[in-house]
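Thread: "does anyone have the structure for this chain?"

Original post by V.I.:
We have the sequence but no experimental structure in hand. Need at least a predicted one for the grant figures.
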Amino acid sequence: MSKLVLVRHGQSVWNQENKFTGWVDVDLSSQGLLEAQTAGEKLKTSGIKWAKAHTSRLKRAQKTLDIILDVCGQKNIPISVDSALNERHYGDLQGLNKDEMRKKFGDEQVHIWRRSYDIAPPNGECLQDTSKRSLPYYREYILPDLKEGRDILVVAHGNSLRSIIMDIEQMTPEQILALNLDTGVPYIYEFDAQGRYLSKSTL
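Reply from O.Q.:
Generated one for you, tokens below.
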């Protein structure tokens, strides 16, 4: 049996300012740094020893991963960095305030842009688009290690992780609409030797 630990990066400066971030490479806020530290402390008590870690090319995810590994005393493990795990691209919404966009376009439209599976914001990606890069990466570089019984850590973003979770749990587009991942919270998935999902928990 193997464990896959998924962690959305700690709060970013633009999360704090309620802005659409996407591929803009903003840093962690002071709260985000604390969330990463807390995630590391929780994972240290779990006793999980990772064979490898994966993260995106955005520094808010990389810094969260670095803090977690430092707290857990596991900074020497192999780390793969790939844009396949980047947040979904929010297109024309990037850098704009979410509340202001709700006033302009309505709550329902902004919720659809943020959560829907197949409706993208203007010049951006929907979750389906994000999954076209995150899932091939997951199946080629993560799932084989899980089948070999290796424990893996992935620190990435709300939507790249949602697309992976949608596949693992075989969720429908309607079910994924309601799924929100909190920043800095470890989600633990257990798999059997065939790579079949057995259970999940949070720390």
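V.I.: this helps a lot. The radius of gyration is 16 Å.
O.Q.: and Residues 127-147 form the longest helix (21 residues).
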